[in-house]
UniProtKB/TrEMBL annotation:
The UniProt record lists the keyword NAD: no
Pfam families reported for this sequence: Sulfotransfer_2 (PF03567)
Keyword Isomerase: no
SUPFAM superfamilies named among the record's database cross-references: P-loop containing nucleoside triphosphate hydrolases
GO molecular function list: sulfotransferase activity
Name this protein carries in UniProt: Sulfotransferase domain-containing protein
Keywords: Membrane, Transmembrane, Transmembrane helix
InterPro entries per record: P-loop_NTPase, Sulfotransferase
Gene3D superfamilies xref list: P-loop containing nucleotide triphosphate hydrolases
Gene Ontology CC: one annotated term: membrane
């Protein structure tokens, strides 16, 4: 028997229908390719909306810590860097930087000052005072913060600001007169007050992000209370509001910095790294390091949730 090819067996009308179908499918495919996800992402949740972008030079997969996965439980952005440029000038009026103490905030603030000037944005910062829901209400603000390994952060805090009283004359700042790490650690393990925390050695990042805020029923003034049972969950919920949560340790990684500069359309503005390369000369006894690990159980878990 003669085998008739399938295409040849179709009538002209059917051929036209199939041809039209493929044309429509092809046009739809090309259209979809030009729509890039504009991701406002945090380490804890992923909020997506599809917007039109014109040939964005996306830098993705810059390191193992910058991979994107689907499950919230497995961290949507391990390093919390999305891969599409933020539309700063039309989407935002302000950049808000919440500075975690001794986590590279000075370097980042100097850089963001130049970024904000380039894009005609206001830059505001907060440091030491507990983050509140009111800080995060403005939908025309780009929210940025950073997190740092709590052990490294505490060691840095002691070395650079905790060894002497603030008013100690420089000529009297000798190692023999310095407060040792163990004394500093225990003195600052439970800072007085919850609204404002400066020098701190225990779960400091959960204190800044996760302090419980209630209102006095008599005069409606705000009351701040750090609750160890709720602080981690509260910190996570507030961090969900941030567009970018940076990891201090990676600000010395040029690939990471390159992606960050790309996201904020600031490749022409250099991020200084001088403070990140200072040598910390503190030699911490092993027993103090083990104690410090226990004192920072919540902060360690916060960073695990954020960065893996």
């Amino acid at each position: 028997d003669m085998v008739i090819p399938y295409a040849a067996s179709l009538g002209s009308k059917n051929k036209f229908v199939i041809f039209t179908f493929f044309i429509i499918f092809g046009l739809a495919y090309l259209t979809c390719k030009n729509i890039t996800p504009h991701i406002f992402a945090t380490t804890f949740t992923t909020k997506q909306q599809r917007e039109q972008h014109n040939d964005v030079d996306v830098v993705s997969g810059v390191s193992a810590n910058n991979s994107m996965v689907n499950s919230v439980e497995t961290k949507p952005f391990a390093a919390n860097l999305p891969t599409v440029v933020f539309d700063l000038e039309s989407r935002f009026d302000r950049i808000f930087l919440y500075r975690v103490r001794k986590a590279g905030g000075t370097t980042l603030q100097r850089w963001l000052k130049k970024v904000s000037e380039k894009h005609n944005l206001e830059l505001s910062t907060k440091e030491g005072f507990a983050l509140t829901p009111d800080d995060l209400k403005d939908n025309r603000t780009l929210f940025i913060t950073m997190l740092r390994d709590p052990i490294d952060r505490a060691v840095s805090s002691h070395w650079f600001e905790g060894r002497w009283q603030r008013k100690t004359p420089r000529e009297n700042r000798t190692n023999s007169k310095a407060q040792n790490f163990s004394s500093w650690m225990w003195y600052n393990a439970n800072p007085k007050g919850d609204k404002f925390v400066w020098q701190c050695s225990s779960n400091c990042q959960c204190k800044w992000f996760g302090t419980n805020i209630t209102y006095n029923p008599i005069d409606q003034t705000r009351m701040f209370k750090f609750d160890v049972d709720t602080a981690l969950d509260t910190a996570v919920e507030r961090l969900k509001k941030f567009h970018l949560i940076l990891r201090t340790e990676q600000l010395s990684d040029q690939k990471y910095v390159s992606v960050l500069s790309h996201l904020l359309d600031a490749k022409d503005i250099r991020i200084g790294t001088a403070n990140q390369h200072r040598t910390v000369h503190d030699v911490i006894p092993q027993t103090d390091l083990e104690t410090l690990q226990k004192l920072n159980r919540l902060d360690k878990e916060l960073l695990r949730l954020a960065f893996g």
